[in-house]
Amino acid sequence: MNITVIGTGYVGLTTGVCMASKGHKVYCVDISKEKIDAINSGTSPIYEEGMDDLLKQALKKGLLKATLDAENSIKDSEVVFICVGTPSREDGSINLDYIKTAAETVSQNLNNYKVIVVKSTVVPGTTVNVVKPVMDKSKKSYGLCMNPEFLKEGTAVKDFLEGDRIVLGVIDDESEDVMRKVYKDFPQKIFVTNPTTAEMIKYANNSLLAAKISFANEVGNVCKKLGINVYEVMDGVGMDKRLCRSFLNAGIGFGGSCFPKDVKALISKGEELKEPMTLLKSVISVNEKQPIKMVELLKKHLNPANKKIGLLGLAFKKGTDDVREAPSLKIIDELLSLKAEVIAYDPEAMSNVKKIYNNKIILADNKEEVVKKSDAVLIITDWDEFKVPELYKNKIVIDGRKIKTNAEIYEGICW
Ligand code: UGA
């Protein structure tokens, strides 16, 4: 089938490349010439395991083309995926401007029947109340589907090709038939529902995962005071099949472009409907305090003022260069406000952090330099290269990620 994907961020590019890997002919549309050129030359603008290989194969077979030309791509396609960003506004509500612009572009170029697929994460009601009216303006026949993504940064390609299920929120049988054809060579089970339910599945999914993490952190904070290892507690809890062990790793809290934004957007939707989401507000509140606990533990051992504090890891999790909503940023801000000097290293995220702090922190060349030059070390991200117990010999270490160390003074955040 011919498919257009609008937006070449990590969701859009993953969708395009994975669809091409199944034999579809894909146009990846974006407004950034730089990104288009990179993709067409076989270099993915984002780092995702397996992405460059699949991209190169798709280009070689002539099954993928990145382009600025939305008009002709849409006209030549049977299916159009909308994969643009849905950032948060100041008040936590979702900004749908990019979705509206993409929908207008599709609507203006509807030359024959095609299925429009919203893949961006949008609050319940958006596909039917915002996207559909724009399509109706075209006076052409079309199909509509809300197809949420469940991709984790770092394993997006694998998650797309082998994830737990595919959710199709369709407006009619014809849209479902086309979408089943799109996904016919994917092994996952397909769950069919309406668009608004599909939108809520995505929000409920991310919110429950975030809730598991905040739950583990809250229990972990109490465990810390009782001298209990929360990882052992969660290993025991996770043996209950009703609960499942994953996403119960306590630590410095969740970051990234998804959990904080999606939970806040759902809270904001609840407010709008006069249904305050007390539980989810607490999930956010626990999460916001968690990184600061690292600094509180540090203060037990030294006064950070005028001391050099080393940070190992800056990305919100390993396997990515992404620092959006990363706990590291809160910790850096707190340390700088306490007049500490910060020296940090991350294998991937240094340039993104440099854009935020310029010369306010020292960016080291490697982990050894951080450890050597600092008065105490905070472990922020669990990159494999930091899992060397010897590295921390004779140091004060505050660990947010449960890494084994030979530190002289060691404090785990929740253990
Ligand atoms: C998350 C979801 O896992 C995906 O299913 C979803 O598609 C995606 O958001 C999205 O909405 O696009 P992602 O943000 O890439 O994926 O990363 P996760 O691996 O889920 O981790 C999120 C955060 O939670 C990280 O900061 C991680 O360190 C933290 N985390 C995760 C914990 O603190 N403890 C855990 O047990 C698991």
Please give a structural write-up.
This protein is α/β, with parallel strands linked by helices and 415 residues long. The protein has two domains: 2-193, Rossmann fold, CATH 3.40.50; 228-253 and 289-412, Rossmann fold (3-Layer(aba) Sandwich). The protein contains 15 helices and 14 strands. The protein has an eight-stranded mixed sheet with strand order 3-2-1-4-5-6-7-8, sandwiched between helices. A six-stranded parallel sheet has the order 11-10-9-12-13-14, with helices on both faces. Strand 7 (165-170), helix 8 and strand 8 form a beta-alpha-beta unit. The longest helix is centred in the middle third of the chain and has 32 residues, at 195-226. Bound molecules: uridine-5'-diphosphate-glucuronic acid. Uridine-5'-diphosphate-glucuronic acid (UGA) binds next to helix 9 and helix 11.
Q: What layout of secondary structure does this protein have?
A:
Blueprint: E1 2-6, H1 10-21, E2 25-29, H2 33-40, H3 51-60, E3 64-67, H4 70-75, E4 79-82, H5 97-108, E5 115-118, H6 126-136, E6 143-146, H7 156-162, E7 165-170, H8 173-182, E8 189-193, H9 195-226, H10 230-237, H11 259-272, H12 278-299, E9 308-312, H13 327-337, E10 341-345, H14 350-357, E11 362-363, H15 367-373, E12 376-379, E13 396-399, E14 409-412
Parallel strand pairs: 1-2, 1-4, 2-3, 4-5, 5-6, 7-8, 9-10, 9-12, 10-11, 12-13, 13-14
Antiparallel strand pairs: 6-7
Helix pairs in contact: 1-3, 1-7, 5-6, 9-11, 9-12, 11-12, 12-13
Uridine-5'-diphosphate-glucuronic acid binds at residues 121, 149-153, 206, 209, 213, 247-249, 251, 254-256, 258-259, 262, 316-317.
